[in-house]
Amino acid sequence: MTAIARGRTRRTAWVTTACALAVTGALALSGCGGEDDPDAGTNGIGKLPPDRIQARTRAAADAASAVRLSGTVVTSGRTYRLDMRLKADGGTGSVTAQGTTFKLLRVGEDLYLKAGADFWNHADGGDGASGKLDGKYVKVPQRDPAYKKFSGFTDKGVLLDGLLTLHGTLATDGRHADASGTRTIRITGDHGSGGTLDVSLQGTPYPLRLVRAGRAGTLRFSDWGRNFTVEEPAKSETVDYGRQLPAS
């Protein structure tokens, strides 16, 4: 009886030890695999070549119903600071240029500009318009040069088409994280001189940060797909100038 008990005890101990070793080995292999694979737990686009990453992020941006865009854009020698929310049928937000901030609102094809007296005081014409335009939503005539200039800031398709393009030979430039901690893959054009774009590695591969070529500004993208409302301002808050706006 004693021999049998000892045999069973030894066999049980051996089985327990073997199981423990197997579990430890499995955990070790699992841990090593996770550490070695930078794409573990991501959407997988980090494994793609840079041209396909760019194509995927452009497709994601185009398909999104809405986006918030903030940062700076340098164009025609002027720096514009933007904070815009955009979707297919309109957009709203603020633009700062030359120390003056004004608001833009587009509802369908109708574009409104809202600014203080300082903005209008810089306008040409000397017709005393600044007083009645101060703090009002001024409807911009579609034939006015300002319409073409500013409506692009409120048009999701036009704005993203003009921005989400890197120039030169594409390459990847490692994994990073944005301000909120979201993991990203960075792609560059001509080693950065053609711009850089950080694309989310989590969930949908949306673009999150763009540094434009030629020091033409830096932009952040957020609130992808988060809907918002654009509606015509109240008549009491609106001025229909009826002709070309004062140049500013």
Automatic annotation (TrEMBL):
Residues in the signal sequence: 1-28
Keywords: Signal
Designated name of the protein: Lipoprotein
Lineage: Bacteria, Bacillati, Actinomycetota, Actinomycetes, Kitasatosporales
